Fold each of these.
Amino acid sequence: MGFKTILVHVDAGPSASKRLKLSADLAARFEAHVLGLYVRRPFQAPAFSDAGPAMDSLYRTYENAVKADEAIATAAFNDLVSRQIIGGKGLSSEWRVADGLAETVVPMHARYADLVIVGQAEPDASTTTTPDDLAETVGMAGERPVLIVPHIGVTKPPGKTVMLCWNGSREAARAATGALPILKQADKVVVLLVDPEDDDGHEKPGFNVAAWLARHGVNAIVKRDTAADSDVGGIILSRAADQDADLIVMGLYGHSRVREWVLGGASRTLLASMTVPLFVAH
């Protein structure tokens, strides 16, 4: 099974066009329908503010900014659709605009997609619609696998050389299963185990996941590494660079505390310092 519906979050940020291009590349690869989503964040009045001319001015400023952002996002999506030809036909696509908080609206729409594409937090972002933690919030929602695109963009379509981070956990298994359509088409798959434990019933850590992948037609190479006192996230990024990986697949770890996502160390490092797309699941 491949990806037949790809949901891509679009805002007015400078990296939105890069996410759109990547979504179109994946749509061509899997003959998928691309669903672009722009979310209008509701107006939030300052605390202890009174109604009157000052409030009217604040609301007009908000409304003008949201309309401008929506126009930029819509134009970017329409431009992609007008230029994209797949198999002699136009891109199968749909444009949606929804009201609410992006961190709530995007996971809701994700239930009707096979893959969700969001962006890494923009440095010095000025858009009015996208919170800095949208990528981890959507990833931790657990509705569908999420592809997080670096704000710097990508130099080549992801999925030719893939690094799968494996520790035998539920989250890693969900990420690997969700990424199977990409793994099956990859030229090279490296399964990375950092400080592996013999917890899968086999004397060679990674043997069972490699055997499972092989039954799906994925010929994976198992690599084992040691973290010692190093940051596991840093090791993953370093080994991905060594292998010239264009995609990292990993489980997203963390828990919710008073509506605030608290991520594990490796997840936090990769989300902050990623140089290639991350395919994650929780």
Note: Confidence is low (pLDDT under 50) at residues 256-263.
Amino acid sequence: MTPSSSRIAVILGSLSALGPLAIDMYLPALPVIAADLHVDEGMMQFSLMAFFAGLMLGQLFYGPVSDRTGRKPMIYVGLALFAGASLGCAFASSASQLAAWRFGQGLGGSIGMVIGLAVVRDLYPGRAAARLIALMMIVLGVAPILAPLIGTFITSLLPWRALFVILALFGAASAALVAIALPE
């Protein structure tokens, strides 16, 4: 029996939003983070590159490994890495530590892009799959638009480290959604 596509769309949408949220939520805070860590903004931009490197590398192995081990175990691994690295970013005391944690965050955050499409392929045929992929693409299109606004709002109220705590909580909430409602 094929699960409800709207339920699956919410789960896969949250997974696919990990990357864009982690990229774009912290961009408005770059000057504040640079000042707090006593580095120039160029060094802070290195943390963005580190995230992209992790995002790229994660996509290379999650798919093949999940073909052997199952989708959900790999989703849990990716989300645990994302949430843990997000907390690492929140407690980073230097720009190099932040960049290293951002690499881990990207590595974990890439799980949503790879596994999401594989789950759609596993669960739905033809038109139903196309419809669900279209919904995922909408999330991928909207997340980068809303993320800087969310980041600006958060940093206007809280210290920049709260951004990463919120991302860790988002990763944990995504893991809970997967555990509760995503079939293997």
Note: Residues 124 and 130 are 9 Å apart (CA to CA).
Amino acid sequence: MEEKPRPLRLGVIGAGWFASRRHCPDVVDHPEVELAALCRRDEKQLAQMARAFDVADTYTDYAGLIASGSLDGVIICSPHQLHFEHTRAALEAGLHVLLEKPIALDPDEGRQLVALSAATGRALVVAQNPPYWSHCRFLRNRLRHGDLGEIEGVSINWVGNALGVLGLEPLPDSLPGVVKPTLFRGDAAQNGGGFLIDGGSHLLCELLWCTGLRVVEVSAHMDNPDWDLRAALTLTLENGALATLSNTADSAVRDKRHHSLYYGSAGTAVIRGFPFEVTVDAGGRTEHVVEAQLPPPPTPVDNLVDCARGRGLPELDGETAVHIIEILDAAYCSARGGHKVSL
């Protein structure tokens, strides 16, 4: 009888609001992993997290967690400006990494992390949403099989209200999570910009991951290029098609609204959320699916475990994770300078 491998021991750097909502519960529910250590600078909130997830090993300094020698991997949910520092240290210590988006704030730093992952043989899984959303996996399958033909145009729009996590209004007491957000997103230096680099990065990931296309030119308009609440981008894709993307974080409507249109030479696909549903008109027939009808997608933790066990690869490849940052960097440059930016 084959011996069952020991559980992978994972620690969390930046063990706060988002980690408590998503990654920590996913670790607890996974049969092959153990939530072994937590790190955050605030001792009171660290204690809250430790009690909530029954973790005894806690740190207020990420270097101590990494140097403990007791872990197989880490989940990094720290503010964006710390992603490079924390991920580099973890990979250099021989740990697998699940990193919250974005991979880094500087494209060159992102490339360094991808190269370091390859050099150390340790997984680097970047948790952009689309690879772990069932509707995006459905759409990607249709596009990659050519059901829509050649992409001729794309429009992606997200409208919602994120003023609370951006520090512009009080957070509701009903907000899910063990602790409240630290509001680093309200600081352009820590966040790397405004809402585009936060929520908008998922929209860019949807475009790139689902179509397999790259962006070669960026033009952007923002309400404030240093810290945006509203942004609109026009993107030239490598096949010559144009894509538009808009992001609004201060809507009077509290419910998140998401609509994506993919126009191809042989058909059309429409995404509507939330919850998500997809309609594909192609080949003389219409196919409509809702989330509940689709196979459950893997979680980022599932993906990290598969990579660490040698039975899978990151759902979002490193090149695409870096390309998202290249586009975001170009968008902020374009909005500040009032000109197109070529990649």
Note: The mean pLDDT is 96.
